[in-house]
Amino acid sequence: MLDACYTASAVQTAVDLANTLRPVKGEDALETVEQLRDFLADHPAGNPQRTGLRQLTRADLAEVRAVRETVREVLERASADPGEAAALLNDGLRHSRATPVLRHEDDRWRTEVTSDTDRCAAHLAATTLSALASVIATLGPTRLGVCAGPTCRATFVDLSRNGSKQYCTRTCAHRASVAAYRSRRSAR
Ligand SMILES: [Zn+2]
Q1: Sign of the dihedral defined by the CA atoms of residues 44, 45, 46, 49, in that order
Q2: 51: domain range?
Q3: CATH number of the domain to which 52 belongs
Q4: CB 75 within 8 A of CB 132
Q5: Can you tell me the distance from the alpha carbon of 10 to that of 32, in angstroms, rounded to the nearest whole number?
Q6: Which residues fall within 8 angstroms of residue 96, CB to CB, at 6 or more apart?
Q7: Is residue 148 part of a domain?
Q8: Quick one: pLDDT band at residue 49, thresholds 50, 70, 90?
Q9: Interval between CA 18 and ligand 1 midpoint (Å)
Q10: Three-state secondary structure call for residue 159
Q11: What is the distance in A from the centroid of ligand 1 to the CA of 35?
């Protein structure tokens, strides 16, 4: 059942969570409780029950930052070391007490994975890690990756048909092709 239950919004939530950290620039967009509240408001898939949004604390922030570390590690490692990524995913899912549930919404039935705790970080972990696990199970571990842009290192998940994504965005792909063109020209 888990195989078919990732949604694009849950996958995007995982990627956006990992990318709140910009390792090359040293920027971190998840340093305050306020930033965490904004992130969760922008990513309802990460917390479908809106658990504890009002009373988010520093403890929630610390827990979500730990979840981010796991999500980022999975995205970075899956392609080269899928066994290690699987171990991280399984640990994280167990830790978040991930639970599949069946819901009836907008006239159709769908499954989703949530947490049976009331911790917002556990909901975020259950949603994002199960989405990444499902992508690996359905499309393969090489669909998870890190942008090839040397000054970027943002993570991505490639849900495209051919699965040949190398850059996080068109902007990064364009920048890389311009740089390659310039270096070819100066080599002449
Ligand atoms: Zn990039």
Answers
A1: positive
A2: 2-142
A3: 1.10.3300.10
A4: yes
A5: 23
A6: 67, 115, 117, 121, 122, 123, 125, 126, 129
A7: no
A8: low
A9: 13
A10: coil
A11: 22
Position 90 pLDDT exceeds 50: yes
CA dihedral 83, 110, 113, 103 (to 10 degrees): -170
Specify if 161 maps to a domain.
no
pLDDT tens across 142-176, in order? Answer: 999 999 998 899 999 999 989 999 999 999 999 98
- Tell me, in angstroms, the distance from the centre of ligand 1 to residue 40's CA: 23
CA 94 / ligand 1 centre spacing (Å) = 31
Cβ contact 58:33 at 8 Å = yes
100 Cα–ligand 1 center, Å: 33
How remote is the CA of residue 65 from the centroid of ligand 1, in Å?
22
Helix, strand, or coil (residue 75): helix
Cβ atoms of residues 179 and 28 within 8 Å: no
Q: Does residue 12 contact residue 156 with C-beta atoms inside 8 Å? A: no
